[in-house]
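Handoff note, outgoing to incoming analyst
You'll be picking up this chain. Sequence as last confirmed:
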Amino acid sequence: MSSVINAQSDDIGRDEQRDLVRGQPRDRDHIIKHGAAYKFIDDPWDPWREKVSFPEKDRKAQPKWIVVAGRRVVPGSVYRVSVEALRPYLTGALQVRAALIHGREQVASAKTILQPGDVDHLLMQVPDKSVGGMWQLRVEGTQGSTKLFHREETLRFDPNFLTILIQPSRPVYNAGQTVRFRVIMLTKELKPYDDPVDVYVL
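Most recent structure output, in case you need it:
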Protein backbone atom coordinates (compact mmCIF):
# COMPACT_ATOMS: atom_id res chain seq x y z
CA MET A 1 0.00 0.00 0.00
CA SER A 2 1.30 3.40 -0.84
CA SER A 3 1.13 5.89 1.94
CA VAL A 4 1.43 9.48 2.97
CA ILE A 5 2.61 10.19 6.48
CA ASN A 6 2.25 13.46 8.30
CA ALA A 7 3.25 14.15 11.89
CA GLN A 8 3.60 17.29 13.97
CA SER A 9 6.18 18.36 16.53
CA ASP A 10 6.64 20.99 19.22
CA ASP A 11 9.72 22.57 20.81
CA ILE A 12 9.68 21.29 24.39
CA GLY A 13 13.30 21.03 25.51
CA ARG A 14 17.03 21.52 24.95
CA ASP A 15 20.08 19.24 24.63
CA GLU A 16 17.86 16.23 24.03
CA GLN A 17 17.20 14.03 21.02
CA ARG A 18 14.60 11.36 20.61
CA ASP A 19 13.73 8.79 17.95
CA LEU A 20 10.16 7.67 17.52
CA VAL A 21 9.57 4.43 15.68
CA ARG A 22 6.09 3.66 14.38
CA GLY A 23 5.08 0.60 12.34
CA GLN A 24 3.98 1.40 8.77
CA PRO A 25 2.82 -0.74 5.81
CA ARG A 26 5.27 -2.22 3.34
CA ASP A 27 5.90 -0.52 -0.03
CA ARG A 28 5.64 3.01 1.23
CA ASP A 29 5.85 5.45 -1.70
CA HIS A 30 5.15 8.87 -0.37
CA ILE A 31 5.94 10.97 2.68
CA ILE A 32 4.64 14.35 3.78
CA LYS A 33 6.95 16.12 6.21
CA HIS A 34 5.74 18.88 8.50
CA GLY A 35 7.99 21.22 10.45
CA ALA A 36 11.77 21.50 10.57
CA ALA A 37 12.27 19.57 13.80
CA TYR A 38 12.41 16.13 12.26
CA LYS A 39 12.83 14.03 9.15
CA PHE A 40 11.74 10.56 8.05
CA ILE A 41 14.39 7.86 7.61
CA ASP A 42 13.95 4.30 6.29
CA ASP A 43 15.06 1.69 8.81
CA PRO A 44 17.21 -0.80 6.82
CA TRP A 45 16.88 -3.45 9.54
CA ASP A 46 13.09 -3.53 9.61
CA PRO A 47 11.17 -3.00 6.32
CA TRP A 48 7.88 -2.90 8.22
CA ARG A 49 8.82 0.21 10.14
CA GLU A 50 9.39 3.88 9.46
CA LYS A 51 11.81 5.64 11.78
CA VAL A 52 11.02 9.24 12.60
CA SER A 53 14.19 10.96 13.75
CA PHE A 54 14.53 14.31 15.48
CA PRO A 55 18.13 15.21 14.63
CA GLU A 56 18.41 18.70 16.03
CA LYS A 57 20.11 18.39 19.40
CA ASP A 58 18.33 21.36 20.96
CA ARG A 59 14.86 20.11 20.16
CA LYS A 60 12.69 17.12 20.77
CA ALA A 61 9.12 16.60 19.67
CA GLN A 62 5.94 14.72 20.42
CA PRO A 63 3.70 13.55 17.55
CA LYS A 64 0.13 14.78 17.56
CA TRP A 65 -1.37 13.27 14.41
CA ILE A 66 -0.70 10.88 11.55
CA VAL A 67 -2.23 11.12 8.06
CA VAL A 68 -1.93 8.16 5.66
CA ALA A 69 -3.19 8.07 2.05
CA GLY A 70 -2.51 6.43 -1.32
CA ARG A 71 -0.41 8.12 -3.96
CA ARG A 72 -2.42 6.83 -6.96
CA VAL A 73 -5.65 8.26 -8.36
CA VAL A 74 -7.78 5.71 -10.26
CA PRO A 75 -10.97 6.70 -12.16
CA GLY A 76 -14.15 5.39 -10.58
CA SER A 77 -12.45 4.40 -7.34
CA VAL A 78 -12.83 5.65 -3.77
CA TYR A 79 -9.75 7.55 -2.58
CA ARG A 80 -9.12 7.03 1.13
CA VAL A 81 -7.28 9.24 3.62
CA SER A 82 -6.78 7.79 7.11
CA VAL A 83 -6.23 10.13 10.05
CA GLU A 84 -5.28 9.38 13.65
CA ALA A 85 -5.27 11.91 16.47
CA LEU A 86 -2.58 10.81 18.90
CA ARG A 87 -2.97 11.02 22.64
CA PRO A 88 -1.81 12.34 25.04
CA TYR A 89 0.04 15.08 23.16
CA LEU A 90 -3.00 16.35 21.24
CA THR A 91 -5.48 18.16 23.45
CA GLY A 92 -8.88 19.08 22.09
CA ALA A 93 -10.71 18.20 18.89
CA LEU A 94 -8.83 18.04 15.58
CA GLN A 95 -10.67 19.09 12.42
CA VAL A 96 -9.21 17.59 9.24
CA ARG A 97 -10.27 18.38 5.69
CA ALA A 98 -8.93 16.63 2.58
CA ALA A 99 -9.49 17.46 -1.09
CA LEU A 100 -8.52 16.03 -4.47
CA ILE A 101 -7.38 18.69 -6.93
CA HIS A 102 -7.18 18.21 -10.71
CA GLY A 103 -5.41 21.14 -12.31
CA ARG A 104 -6.99 24.05 -10.46
CA GLU A 105 -10.35 22.39 -9.91
CA GLN A 106 -11.41 20.60 -6.76
CA VAL A 107 -13.10 17.34 -7.79
CA ALA A 108 -13.81 15.78 -4.37
CA SER A 109 -13.47 16.60 -0.69
CA ALA A 110 -14.23 15.21 2.76
CA LYS A 111 -13.83 16.34 6.37
CA THR A 112 -13.97 14.92 9.85
CA ILE A 113 -13.56 15.87 13.51
CA LEU A 114 -11.45 13.67 15.76
CA GLN A 115 -10.98 13.59 19.51
CA PRO A 116 -7.60 12.53 20.95
CA GLY A 117 -7.18 8.80 20.36
CA ASP A 118 -9.67 8.65 17.47
CA VAL A 119 -9.02 7.15 14.03
CA ASP A 120 -11.17 8.07 11.02
CA HIS A 121 -11.18 7.65 7.24
CA LEU A 122 -11.98 10.37 4.71
CA LEU A 123 -13.52 8.83 1.58
CA MET A 124 -13.60 10.70 -1.74
CA GLN A 125 -15.13 9.38 -4.95
CA VAL A 126 -12.93 9.84 -8.03
CA PRO A 127 -15.14 10.55 -11.07
CA ASP A 128 -15.41 7.77 -13.67
CA LYS A 129 -14.48 10.13 -16.51
CA SER A 130 -11.31 11.42 -14.86
CA VAL A 131 -8.33 12.04 -17.13
CA GLY A 132 -4.62 12.51 -16.64
CA GLY A 133 -2.90 15.75 -15.73
CA MET A 134 -1.80 17.38 -12.53
CA TRP A 135 -3.44 15.68 -9.54
CA GLN A 136 -2.85 16.80 -5.96
CA LEU A 137 -3.96 15.87 -2.47
CA ARG A 138 -4.57 18.77 -0.10
CA VAL A 139 -4.85 18.08 3.64
CA GLU A 140 -5.60 20.72 6.26
CA GLY A 141 -5.86 20.40 10.02
CA THR A 142 -7.25 22.96 12.43
CA GLN A 143 -8.04 23.20 16.10
CA GLY A 144 -10.67 25.82 16.63
CA SER A 145 -9.46 28.90 14.75
CA THR A 146 -5.81 27.75 14.82
CA LYS A 147 -4.37 26.10 11.69
CA LEU A 148 -2.17 23.19 12.72
CA PHE A 149 -1.02 21.99 9.30
CA HIS A 150 -1.60 22.46 5.59
CA ARG A 151 0.04 20.19 3.04
CA GLU A 152 -0.28 19.63 -0.71
CA GLU A 153 1.30 16.64 -2.43
CA THR A 154 1.37 15.49 -6.06
CA LEU A 155 -0.44 12.25 -6.90
CA ARG A 156 0.01 9.83 -9.80
CA PHE A 157 -2.92 9.23 -12.17
CA ASP A 158 -3.48 5.58 -13.12
CA PRO A 159 -5.93 5.10 -16.02
CA ASN A 160 -6.07 1.31 -15.53
CA PHE A 161 -9.31 1.09 -13.58
CA LEU A 162 -10.77 -2.08 -15.09
CA THR A 163 -10.15 -5.76 -14.48
CA ILE A 164 -10.71 -7.56 -17.80
CA LEU A 165 -11.35 -11.31 -17.92
CA ILE A 166 -11.39 -13.19 -21.26
CA GLN A 167 -12.91 -16.67 -21.26
CA PRO A 168 -12.67 -18.86 -24.43
CA SER A 169 -15.27 -21.49 -25.25
CA ARG A 170 -12.72 -24.32 -25.00
CA PRO A 171 -9.07 -24.72 -23.96
CA VAL A 172 -7.85 -26.12 -27.33
CA TYR A 173 -9.08 -25.45 -30.87
CA ASN A 174 -8.54 -27.56 -33.97
CA ALA A 175 -8.45 -26.43 -37.59
CA GLY A 176 -11.85 -25.40 -38.89
CA GLN A 177 -13.39 -24.80 -35.45
CA THR A 178 -14.97 -21.47 -34.54
CA VAL A 179 -13.35 -19.57 -31.70
CA ARG A 180 -15.91 -18.16 -29.29
CA PHE A 181 -15.11 -16.14 -26.20
CA ARG A 182 -16.64 -13.71 -23.78
CA VAL A 183 -15.18 -10.68 -22.09
CA ILE A 184 -16.05 -9.67 -18.51
CA MET A 185 -15.07 -6.20 -17.33
CA LEU A 186 -15.11 -5.28 -13.64
CA THR A 187 -14.39 -2.01 -11.85
CA LYS A 188 -12.10 -1.71 -8.85
CA GLU A 189 -15.16 -2.42 -6.67
CA LEU A 190 -15.73 -5.67 -8.64
CA LYS A 191 -18.91 -4.28 -10.18
CA PRO A 192 -19.76 -4.72 -13.89
CA TYR A 193 -18.59 -1.95 -16.19
CA ASP A 194 -21.62 -0.71 -18.15
CA ASP A 195 -20.15 1.58 -20.82
CA PRO A 196 -19.60 0.18 -24.36
CA VAL A 197 -16.09 -1.02 -25.21
CA ASP A 198 -14.54 -2.06 -28.54
CA VAL A 199 -12.82 -5.46 -28.48
CA TYR A 200 -10.39 -6.42 -31.24
CA VAL A 201 -9.23 -9.99 -31.93
CA LEU A 202 -5.80 -10.07 -33.57
